[in-house]
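Quick one, tokens below:
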């Protein structure tokens, strides 16, 4: 099943997200992310968090639509978004798209990306989306839906990624090993249609900036 997690981070142009309405089997809102669902007219199936940033109006909206609430204490080891990722996995997600999970705070952005990496290693596809970029977390093959001239960066999510191959890029790679402690696959450019990223071992964040 394809899940949407709406976190409480930066969204940018809300109109951009409307093109994806109807693309998800389940929609989960993380606390204050419920306000974005209300603004976009999306129906949340579950609201998760300590409820410290959700407004009464958004809470009433979700309640009226029959959303399930999972309320947790404010003082806890995991973030609300981490809890959402765990619950999505438990509910049978095979593909998770995250909105509002990057850009608002560096600590939350890094936590979200690295935490989602564990799901990727357990066979779940994860994509972070915003109007500016898509971040694919991959451990196998990705046929990147980008255009010639788009900028793409690879960030190694862990100690290293092995067997990394890039096809259709200005700077190609063939079975390369990328060191997570010294990143060196930043700011590549798509030069051919249907570019491909392959990883044999490890997880890589493929950051695609739409020009």
């Amino acid at each position: 099943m394809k899940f949407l997690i709406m976190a409480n981070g930066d969204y940018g142009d809300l109109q951009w997200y409307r093109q994806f309405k109807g693309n998800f089997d389940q929609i989960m809102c993380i606390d204050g992310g419920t306000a974005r669902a209300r603004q976009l007219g999306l129906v949340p199936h579950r609201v998760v968090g300590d409820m410290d940033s959700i407004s009464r109006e958004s809470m009433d909206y979700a309640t009226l639509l029959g959303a399930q609430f999972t309320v947790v204490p404010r003082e806890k080891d995991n973030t609300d978004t981490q809890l959402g990722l765990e619950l999505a996995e438990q509910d049978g997600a095979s593909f998770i798209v995250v909105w509002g999970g990057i850009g608002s705070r560096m600590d939350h952005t890094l936590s979200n990306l690295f935490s989602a990496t564990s799901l990727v290693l357990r066979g779940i596809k994860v994509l972070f989306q915003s109007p500016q970029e898509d971040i694919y977390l991959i451990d196998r093959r990705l046929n990147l839906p980008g255009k010639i001239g788009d900028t793409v960066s690879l960030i190694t999510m862990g100690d290293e990624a092995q067997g990394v191959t890039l096809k259709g890029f200005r700077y190609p790679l063939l079975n390369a090993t990328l060191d997570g402690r010294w990143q060196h696959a930043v700011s590549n450019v798509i030069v051919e249609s249907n570019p491909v990223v392959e990883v044999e071992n490890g997880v890589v964040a493929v950051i695609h900036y739409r020009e």
